[in-house]
Amino acid sequence: MKELPAPVLAPADFQQRLLGWFDKHGRHDLPWQRDRTPYRVWVSEIMLQQTQVTTVIPYFERFMARFPDVGSLASAQQDEVLHLWTGLGYYARGRNLHKAAQVIVDKHGGELPQTLEALAELPGIGRSTAGAIIAQSRGQRAVILDGNVKRSLSRLHAVPGWPGRPAVERTLWALAEHFTPQERLADYTQAMMDFGATLCRRGAPDCPSCPFNDVCVAHARGETRRFPESKPKKALPTRTTLMLMLCDNRGRVLLEQRPATGLWGGLWSLPQFDDDESLRAWLDQHAPGSQLDPPQATFTHVFSHFRMEITPQSARVERLDSVGEARRWYDPAQPDRLGLAAPVKALLTSLAPFSLTAAPGP
After folding, report:
1. Is it the case that residue 360 has pLDDT exceeding 60?
2. Which reactions does this protein catalyse (predicted)?
3. DSSP state at residue 358
4. Contact in structure between 188 and 135 (CB atoms under 8 Å)
5. What is the DSSP track for 191-258?
6. Could you tell me how far CA 358 lies from the centroid of its own chain?
7. Which of 13, 79, 294, 331 is most solvent-facing, going by the fewest CB within 10 Å?
8. What are the structural domain ranges in the chain?
């Protein structure tokens, strides 16, 4: 494969068409475009990774209200950061955002680094995200290649292969570099993301409205749905787990904090067990005299790389004086500000008759 296939347009023509479309149809009033600072752009870019703009907006606004600057984020407890991330998914993003804020305060004087290299060294910031932060917040020339840009360039040039393959990704980076201008970098970067998100969409691209429909190779071939080519599929493995909903006589539910790394790292969850035998053994040891209710219906929670079949198991205990380390009682009627795994949050809000009010949104 050639490193750079013949571009369909000269850079100036490509930029003129894209920015002309953006000026008329792009998004110009997103929350992070108002009072634009490196910090606000950074938080928005992390939230927007694998998440749609409409989903991100309310999370971003709540996050900014609580953490208006990098110092307030760095000094916060991880639980509060993850609480505001609950429901947004991909929780490593929230943990890395918190860690990066602490690094920025400790090593960069509370200011986001101004170079791509220094930004990319921070937790959770890769090459494309660093480029977006630089271009959007400082107007400096930087290249981006997020999922939207990969899709658009793949279709425009009918680039064969899955973009996750290193050789294909190198080709797309070369094309992105070729088209990136020297001016209007913030607008150009937003335009590339908007174009892929609203026009050159994954499932139903709006080819008649596209400013490149006369030169798009995939469109000319009638193969827009083929590009970009999909990752070779593997059957998602399935895991099973029992989630213990242990309630005391005050209607509180026992939670335990997940390890800092791995699945739902740092979040609070219901105690999990591989089978009924291990669950009962745990109860015998930690909550003797507890009463088990019939298990609830199993439901499935899908992750990017596996499926989890969850069976909730309710139990009641009159009293449990010591819950041990990394565990706490949680009152659904007066919920603490904790980061909760999404299926756990759903279970806690459905704990009638124990729950008097639903837990608030993230």
Report:
1. no
2. Hydrolyzes free adenine bases from 7,8-dihydro-8-oxoguanine:adenine mismatched double-stranded DNA, leaving an apurinic site
3. P
4. yes
5. HHHHIIIIIS-SSS--GGG-TTTTT-HHHHHT-TTT-SPPPPP-PPPEEEEEEEEEE-TTS-EEEEEP
6. 24
7. 294
8. 11-221, 238-349
Amino acid at 57: I
Which single residue is written with the structure tokens 């500000």?
337
Q: Is 61 a catalytic residue?
A: no
pLDDT tens sequence across 245-290? 999 888 899 999 999 888 898 999 999 999 999 999 999 888 888 8
Domain 238-349 sits in CATH at 3.90.79.10
List the Cα angle 50/53/56 in 5-degree steps: 80
- CB under 8 Å to 69, separation ≥6 — which residues? 39
Which superfamily, per CATH, for 11-221? Hypothetical protein; domain 2 (1.10.340.30)
- Is 265 in contact with 259 (CB distance < 8 Å)? yes
* Residue/partner pairs of 193-196 with CB below 8 Å, 24 or more apart: 193/48, 193/132, 193/144, 193/146, 193/148, 193/149, 194/22, 194/25, 194/26, 194/27, 195/18, 195/21, 195/22, 195/148, 195/152, 196/146, 196/147, 196/148, 196/149, 196/151, 196/152
The residue type of 318 is E
* Contacts for 318 with CB less than 8 Å, ≥ 6 apart: 248, 249, 289
- Judge whether residue 292 has pLDDT over 60: yes
CB 257 within 8 A of CB 336: no
Prior bond of 38 cis (ω within 30°):
no
> Token pair for residue 18?
């894209």
Q: Is there a contact between 101 and 39 (Cβ–Cβ < 8 Å)?
A: no
**Tokens at residue 161, please?**
């292969």
